[in-house]
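hiii, so i know i said id send this last week but things got crazy w the move. better late than never?? heres the sequnce for the chain we talked about at the cafe, plus the structure i predicted for it. fair warning i was half asleep when i ran it
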Amino acid sequence: MWGLLFLNVLTFYPTTWTGLPLAVPIPSKVGKVITQGALLGALLAALMLNRRRLIRPNVFLCLVSLLVLDALVAAMEAEHLLGTSYRTARLAMFVAVLWLLSPWWTRRDLLLVRCHLALTSTVLGSVLLGLLVAPRTAMAEGRLAGALWPIPPTGVAHFAAITIGLMVVFWLSNRASGHVTLLVVAVAGTMLLLTHTRTALVGMMAGILVAGLSLFIVKARARKLLVAAGIVVSIVALTLSSILTAWLTRGEDTQQLTSLTGRTTVWASILGAPRNEFQIIFGSGMSNLSFNGLPIDSNWLAAYNDLGLVGVILCALMLLFPLAAAYFQPRGVKRALALFLVTYCLVSSFTETGLSDPSLYLLELSLAASLLVPYGGDNSLATQSAAEAPAVLESVADRSLPADRLDRRPE
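okay and structure toks below
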């Protein structure tokens, strides 16, 4: 189910981000059926697996559900009713699958995180394969992108940054070997640098810093890594400043840098557009995250344009709640992983969109929220019906488990 949700939020275009044909041509209709049909498959799979419709109440999914309600209200004043209705229904289905997945949020084996890491690694593997098969297509305009599946450089950088961050946190928590972590960081880090994407790099570094600080007291590896990282950053800043500056500027002039590659122009147009009171509060309905044909590239402006001030407030609460919940969690791998993901989403939200619609960012923020659900909230036995309870107790007795260990799970 997580893989189908992941597939649904992957972007698809019949060509690469530069307009070149894909190394393996995929018809537009086929690609859209694969990505859009994945959400329906995820919902059907969730309904079949969770036949009793059990859910785990939590604040985060309640906030996301309020986002759906806001989208429904905003759709009443939408200019393009058909497209808005489809996007609203997609968001509702996406949230419904997350609700049906909530009973598995307290697994100690970090199943969802491992699934997500496997999926991001698979995508990076396809990008590497495309680089080998069609290097000119993959490195068009000097930035690494997907040649087999239309993944733009910013998307490749996102996958690389998340993969590096999760692996580093696993290593800091003694959940991954040093050799495997070093290999993953070397390969994914090279891919991240080849994309020339600044947002992903800054978000990854900020996320690892926050996660490392959360483990600073309990893990010696975290203390050593932060000290070593500070020394390396200082040396690089002093000796390779010219190379670093050239990589960050990507050949852009001063005007492009100050306007964030044209983003501020679109943002000014959104803020200056005439709106009535309803549109200011509830928005104009869910769009394709563009304004006058140009991408918005800011979650906060996109949320304001589509869902109004209510949407902006809900997005802020969706980010603040995991941060507040992490404060009350014990130091450990789950808290560190959650802090990395939330910090990355927070940094990326200023120049990327995604928290107000079904996207990789919303999926990863939901993953962070799932890591902060306490183990004690498991109610698997409490939800058994009266008819099933004797069978459960009998099976427990057959395994000769003491009654006081009934609700315990092994590490």
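btw The chain has one domain: 2-374. thought thatd interest u
miss u guys!!
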